[in-house]
Design a protein that fits this description.
The complex is a heterodimer of chains A (about 325) and B (about 350). With about 325 residues, chain A is mainly α. Chain A is built from 13 helices and no strands. Chain A has a domain of about 170 residues: MetI-like (MetI-like fold), CATH 1.10.3720. The longest helix of chain A is centred in the last third of the chain and has 39 residues. Chain B is built from 12 helices and 12 strands. In chain B, strand 1 and strand 2 form a beta hairpin. The two termini of chain B are about 25 Å apart. Classes of the chains: A mainly alpha (about 325), B alpha/beta (about 350). Chains A and B meet through helix 9 and helix 10 of A and helix 2, helix 3 and helix 6 of B. The structure holds adenosine-5'-diphosphate, iron/sulfur cluster and magnesium ion. Chain A: Belongs to the binding-protein-dependent transport system permease family. Chain A: It comes from Teichococcus aerophilus. Chain A: Keywords: Cell membrane, Membrane, Transmembrane, Transmembrane helix, Transport.
């Protein structure tokens, strides 16, 4: 690792701070708009107003909003994500318990998107304006437009309820029962992946078309290299930078889309945790999930930047 | 040298290039004909857009196959390149004919080292080991005057200056020692001082390797430094062909004469003479006869008839019916030259 890469990591870590603060402040503010009162939920159906007020005091909900936030943040920076207002369980435990389910479908979606999107992109770019290209491009534009939760419901209807090939809902632990975990993850990952497949296909196609019509590819032809060598060596290395960028984007989007997909497939992941906690105004849980997910996204993007500097010689010496 | 007994290296015969445009086609060059002897350096000049690059790419077989079409013959030592299957043509490129381009900044792959880009050319055509390819690439870098070639082998294009990149480009083109190099405005994008160096390197390497060069440029000064013969193109046609020395002194075609007179370096005059007045005709609006007629100061009624390219005495070819009667100024004023 050279000096530049260390600097890159350093500056990225500094960037984490404002991003995390911004994200959590935004979520905190939005939660205030949600109707409902965690104290009332805890107190139960027939609680008196005094009992509810007591609980509010106990939880610190009577204090000003900004003060609640600062207290939360103070704990969070020390690695303590507080406890759920409703269950009293530590948030970090709950998040870490559910995170593998979410990451499994997200990573699987990303793998599918790359494995399907890259060959499709290459196929289209090497057959520009021919029927194959037209078909691929049309399907890709549809794929970008289809909402993934809707597609998820169709997939469940067809493959799970109809054919019975896959379980309809739930999740399993990847370490304890990998096969079952994968069969649970297959449909939600596919639903999550469609947007990514379409995005990778489109971006890779246009990047590769640009590379293949560039002046330096003309030089490669002038040197007498074969088309195959030009495509697989020079073409792919040049578009790998675009691919990396798109992969990062697709991962971020897929992670965000888990909120809807986990609801459709009833997966006990972080997405469904956010939804459930938000309806209860259980802000420490919502904040905790956002905090952890933001860290994951930033970590991945940092990794991509580092890979970028390895692949593109121009990055290092600029 | 007796060119008559030698088989020409390259014989371009009535070469026309067409591009697909919408439903139809446009013709961008018409009946381009010239020959090159082995080791001969020929200049190809003409205003921007007259079809020089298209002609060069046609010789290389690099025009887009889906949207272009060629008519005529390109014979390389008697072998017709247009009739040749694409795979066989590919094996000629970089081995027997090479080409270098105007823009050294964008002509090299940015994510591979210079050395890789030279040795892969060698390995595409010859059965050499990695180590041997490396050594020969370093030799090639040294030959084009790149200092510290062993270090430069591992440099990326963005780490070199424009002049050095063009040298690297030349090293790539010449590493297999081709018989013919097509140099398409190799110095246009470079500083004036660097231009002269690149032209020197090219001239010297051609002589040393016995390689022929088609030097495409719109700079007649550079042609007079390097080439022995000159082909002038106008609006997609060859209008004059002959020995550089003859044409500099007494051009036969009014367009060549106009090009020469707008050349400040050779006339040694302070002010650049005005370029030829008028504009190049656009496709679809070509004059039926001589294409230069709308701009020609010597036009007369016979000029409205189509003009063939024809031989003139003592040697050379001209596409002008008045070539014999006109006494046109070259780079030297006519009185002094006579
Ligand atoms: N790929 C192409 N498709 C259509 N027209 C082209 C193409 N390449 C060149 N042309 C046209 O051919 C003519 C000659 O171009 P070119 O050979 O590049 O001129 P130059 O003499 O400046 O090198 C120009 O009018 C140009 O517009
Ligand atoms: S043929 Fe006539 S118009 Fe054309 S260049 Fe000659 S003199 Fe001029
Ligand atoms: Mg050109």
């Amino acid at each position: 690792m050279n000096r530049r890469q260390l600097l890159l990591i350093g500056s990225r870590l500094l960037q984490v701070v404002p991003v995390v603060i911004l994200a959590t402040v935004a979520i905190f503010g939005l939660l205030q708009l949600v109707p409902g009162d965690p104290a009332a939920v805890i107190a139960g159906e027939y609680a008196t107003a005094e009992r509810i007020a007591d609980i509010r005091r106990m939880l610190g909900l009577d204090r000003p909003v900004w003060e609640q936030y600062v207290v939360w943040l103070g704990h969070a920076v020390q690695g303590d994500l507080s406890a759920s207002l409703i269950t009293g369980q530590p948030v970090l435990d709950e998040v870490l318990r559910r995170l593998p389910n979410t990451l499994l479908i997200t990573v699987l979606a990303l793998v599918l998107a790359v494995l399907i999107g890259v060959p499709l992109g290459i196929l289209a770019a090497t057959r520009v304006d021919r029927p194959t290209d037209r078909i691929v491009t049309t399907i890709a534009s549809l794929g970008v437009a289809v909402p993934n939760f809707w597609l998820g419901m169709i997939l469940v209807g067809f493959f799970a309820l109809g054919l019975g090939w896959f379980p309809t809902t739930g999740a399993a632990s990847l370490t304890q029962d990998p096969l079952r975990a994968l069969s649970h993850a297959a449909l939600p990952a596919l639903a999550l992946a469609t947007g990514g497949i379409a995005e990778i296909t489109r971006q890779l196609r246009s990047a590769l078309i640009e590379v293949l019509s560039s002046q330096y590819v003309r030089t490669l032809h002038a040197k007498g290299l074969s088309n195959a060598r030009i495509l697989w060596q020079h073409g792919l290395k040049n578009v790998s930078l675009t691919l990396l960028t798109v992969v990062g984007l697709v991962f971020n989007r897929a992670l965000g889309a888990t909120v809807a997909i986990e609801a459709v497939f009833a997966i006990p992941g972080t997405g469904s945790l956010v939804v459930a906690s938000a309806t209860n105004k259980d802000f420490p849980v919502v904040q905790g999930v956002v905090f952890v997910l933001v860290l994951i996204v930033i970590g991945l993007n940092l990794m991509i930047d580092l890979l970028y500097s390895l692949l593109d010689p121009r990055v290092n010496r600029r | 040298m007796d060119h008559a007994v030698k088989q020409p290296l390259l014989e371009v015969n009535k070469l026309s290039a067409f591009f697909r445009a919408g439903r139809g086609e446009v013709q961008v060059t018409r009946d381009v004909s010239f020959t090159m002897a082995p080791g001969e350096m020929v200049g190809l000049v003409g205003e921007s857009g007259c079809g020089k690059t298209v002609t060069g790419l046609a010789l290389m077989g690099l025009l887009p196959p889906a949207s272009s079409r060629l008519e005529g013959k390109i014979l390389l030592q008697g072998q017709d390149l247009i009739a040749m299957p694409p795979s066989a043509k590919r094996r000629l490129r970089g081995r027997r004919i090479s080409m270098i381009f105007q823009e050294p900044m964008s002509a090299l792959d940015p994510v591979f080292t210079i050395g890789h880009q030279i040795s892969e050319t060698l390995r595409a055509h010859q059965d050499v080991s990695r180590a041997e390819a490396r050594n020969r690439a370093i030799e090639a870098l040294a030959r084009v005057g790149i200092p510290e070639p062993t270090l430069r082998y591992d440099a990326y294009p963005h780490q070199l200056s424009g002049g050095m990149r063009q040298r690297a480009m030349i090293a790539i083109a010449l590493v297999c020692e081709p018989q013919l190099l097509i140099a398409d405005e190799p110095t246009t994008a470079l500083d004036v001082t660097v231009q002269a160096q690149i032209v020197d390197v090219l001239g010297e390497l051609c002589t040393r390797m016995g390689m022929a060069m088609l030097f495409i440029t719109h700079d007649l000064g550079l042609v007079s430094q390097t080439c022995s013969r000159l082909v002038t193109m106008y609006a997609g046609e060859v209008v004059e062909e002959g020995r550089v020395d003859d044409i500099l002194l007494r051009p036969r075609h009014p367009y060549s004469s106009g090009l020469l007179r707008s050349l400040p370096a050779l006339t040694q005059r302070k002010a650049r003479l005005p370029a030829i007045p008028g504009r190049v005709p656009v496709r679809g609006d070509m004059p039926p006869g001589c294409r230069f007629q709308p701009r020609c100061a010597h036009a007369q009624p016979p000029c409205t008839a189509p003009q063939p390219l024809r031989a003139v005495q003592p040697q050379g070819e001209v596409r002008c019916c008045r070539a014999e009667e006109l006494i046109l100024p070259g780079v030297l004023p006519v009185e002094r030259a006579a």
